[in-house]
Design a protein that fits this description.
heterodimer; A: alpha+beta; Thiol Ester Dehydrase, Chain A; B: 146 residues; alpha+beta; 4 helices; 22% helix; 35% strand
Chain lengths: 139, 146
């Protein structure tokens, strides 16, 4: 991977863009098994309905994993110093997630040149599901 | 309302194995096709000891300790009432297949908003590897919809 250089990166750049396939029930079943999050709210429609939901909904951490994929498609994971998100809306079966990442700040910290990224995961209509940020170190 | 006495509740240290097959399965489940996450040779060529755990897999490892479910059960909160409010990680060293990661999770705060209609549980976790190196600090906020 050609790694971005600190000097070449500018505040306002949008180096990260990733679009997923629509989230299916299979996606949720695989994610439940692989992640170890077996909360039935994400995989069992009977449970979800009994809890007052109209259907199962996606694991927030699945979309955060998509944000992570966005970051590591731009820089190697070894450059990742911190990563956080708020989960603002529930993601429903059938929605596509579009990940974008924008350079919010350039800084020096702990002897490294670092860049703060603003990350969002939204559906195709632009409804923001996750609002996050990551700090990466660049050479 | 959740009893505030649970603030400070801390799990005993629990150690989880980072399994190669599980990492490949996770990469598939999140649609990650970068060979670094599924091909050990690619991972080694990229400087990792073995397949690296993707950024959010640290959370999955911690879930193996059952601390989330144990904590909400102790607080009397039904699983069907919780949502994930926020999640954060600080990374200090890679986690790779073959590592053994020890987690300690502490309930650092419990508070409510909207007159108790929403309650928030904040949990802080440390992740330490088999060499005693702190590899990550993790924080999650769970929202309880009353």
């Amino acid at each position: 991977m050609a790694q971005p250089k600190y000097a070449d990166v500018n505040v306002g750049d949008e180096p990260i863009k990733l679009e997923t396939a629509p989230i299916s029930r299979t996606t949720l079943a695989l994610y439940a098994g692989a992640s170890g999050d077996h909360n039935p709210m994400h995989i069992d429609i009977d449970y979800a309905k009994a809890a007052g939901q109209s259907d199962v909904f996606a694991h927030g951490m699945l979309s955060m994993a998509y944000l992570g994929r966005g970051v590591t498609s731009w820089v190697p994971q070894s450059a990742l110093r911190s990563f956080s998100t708020k989960f603002t809306k529930i993601t429903r079966v059938g929605e596509k997630i579009i990940v974008t990442g924008k350079v919010a700040e350039k800084m020096e910290a702990e002897g490294e040149k670092r860049v703060k990224l603003e990350l969002t995961a939204a559906n195709e209509a632009g409804e923001v599901k996750l609002a996050g940020e990551a700090v990466v170190a660049l050479a | 309302m959740i009893d505030k006495k649970h603030i400070g509740r801390t799990t005993a240290p629990q150690t989880v194995d980072v399994e190669k097959g599980r990492l490949k399965f996770f990469a598939k489940a999140i649609g990650e096709t970068d060979p670094v996450y599924s091909d050990e040779e690619a991972a080694k060529a990229a400087g990792y000891a073995s397949l690296p755990a993707p950024p959010t897999f640290t959370f999955c490892l911690e879930m193996e300790t059952n601390s989330l479910w144990d904590n909400i059960a102790a607080m009397g909160v039904p699983v069907g009432k919780i949502l994930h409010g926020s999640q954060s990680f600080k990374y200090y060293a890679p986690i790779c297949a073959g590592d053994k990661i020890t987690f300690v999770t502490k309930v650092s705060n419990i508070f409510d908003k909207k007159g108790g209609a929403m309650e928030f549980i904040v949990e802080d976790t440390t992740a330490t590897n088999q060499d005693g190196v702190l590899v990550a600090d993790i924080q999650r906020t769970i929202v309880v919809i009353n």
